[in-house]
Give the backbone structure.
Amino acid sequence: MEIQFKDVSYIYQENTPFAHKALEHISFTVNSGSFVAVIGHTGSGKSTLIQHLNGLSLPSRGEINIGDFHLSADGKPKNIRDLRRKVGVVFQYPEHQLFEETVAKDIAFGPKNFGVEQEEIDRRIEKLLPAVGLPKEILERSPFDLSGGQKRRVAIAGVLAMAPQVLVLDEPTAGLDPRGQREIMDMFYQLHQEQNLTTVLVTHSMEDALAYADKIIILNKGQKYMEGHPLDVFKQAEKLQEVQLGLPEVIHFLNQYNERFGTSLTYQYQPMPELAKEIKKRLEVGSHE
Amino acid sequence: MNNALIIGQYVPGNSLIHRLDPRTKITVVFFFVIIVFFANNVPTYSLLTAFSVLCVLISRVPLRFILKGLLPVWFLIIFTFILHLIITNEGNLLVDWGFIKIYSGGVIQGFAISLRFFLLILTTSLLTLTTTPIEITDAMEEMLHPLKKIKFPVHELALMMSISLRFIPTLMQETDKISRAQAARGVDFRTGPVKDRVMAVIPLLVPLFVSAFKRAEDLAMAMEARGYQGGEGRSKLRELHVGTKDILVLTGFVLMLVALFVLRQ
């Protein structure tokens, strides 16, 4: 589903002494089937933006179109439940939303609310478990007995079981060990490709943004600061520096390397070994001269 | 979060009222709450109303904000008024609709009682609007100090109070977060049959309790790790001082008390 923000502003507690502009004049488009990374510091409005994607918050000004759904300040559309079924949101620390007696029941909670038949839910769970990396035995255990990483996977499965068309991820790997982070991100990317999902990822990791996104949107103090293809965005190191954002390690390394040796290697999504070979080749040429 | 209810919310500011010693404010509010019930004629009620309006003006908390914030309480005030209007039968008969008879005594009574109610809520919420919860607990601890003599655990009580106050916003945030997460999974807290709505609270309460217990455990652990052992020999970060302005305010308040009892019938 295509997502379109048109001049959206959001003001917390409007008309009180606590009024606070969380989003200001934000416009962008997310094409159907694309993977977009939203980057910004704490308080830049990322989480607020996410809440607009399934109608948990409505814009104070401007309008949002998500597929056929239309959101504006005029109130909730009647079919908001349909919107929430089609837009699955994995919130930050999603394991905090677990509450059922067993893992199976917790995963089934979402789809059940949207009226999916138990048989269909069971089918989905069977397919989902290996995808999120959970063993089958876990289904009858209490979600509160699991380890942190397993809880996270159960919570993610609970959102995926709704079979959403748009997947919104709010720092889904925060607080996991490096291996768990890689596994979870790879899993999301695989799902994104296999099921042709539209994915919005909020992250602090420039590495993830570079590796997965077709487009990056950078927020700063509630405003859109930059937007574009990752390779284009990461070319503007100075502009990023102004809002205290760094570059992905690969690009940072190549920049420094180029500066040191007067070369002009650019990152074009080459796999690491290939990049290493290229560098080696240049070094050999250099030493012969 | 419930944005409509402002009772217990603190509005930062730097007015005279904000800077008063919290003990002064608590004392004034405490006695005000009592003397509201002593007013019994127009001059006394006017005096009390003037006093509270003056306080609100000095505090510079926007009046519109206070009135809007008291919206849920307005209902109670109006309800009290109507109740007294209908059930009192003193004075002259004003309206007679057969089943409802309104007497002049009822109008006066209704007006007086709802004004009392309004003044009570106005002043008490002004206290919390201009005083941080921490200041209030500090003041309570100081004021209850004499009870230590009879082995009353004043410090522990104050600590309990400040911890619970400290965690109200955290729990509110947590509630907000979890209800959003569950709403995203299709829970509907607002519409549908009552039975469904009651059931919808379970996915909210279970995670809330789990995290509250976890937080309590973490806090206890952190306190113990830093060697916390209660009130004995512990110095204070925030010392309370009674200044000239406190003495002036208290004197003014006592003068008003005297005036009230003079004007009283």
About this structure: The domain at 3-246 of chain A is CATH 3.40.50.300 (Rossmann fold). The interface with chain B takes residues 13, 16-17, 51, 54, 56, 81, 84-85, 87-89, 91, 94, 96-99, 109-110, 113-114, 144, 158-159, 162 of chain A (CB under 8 Å).
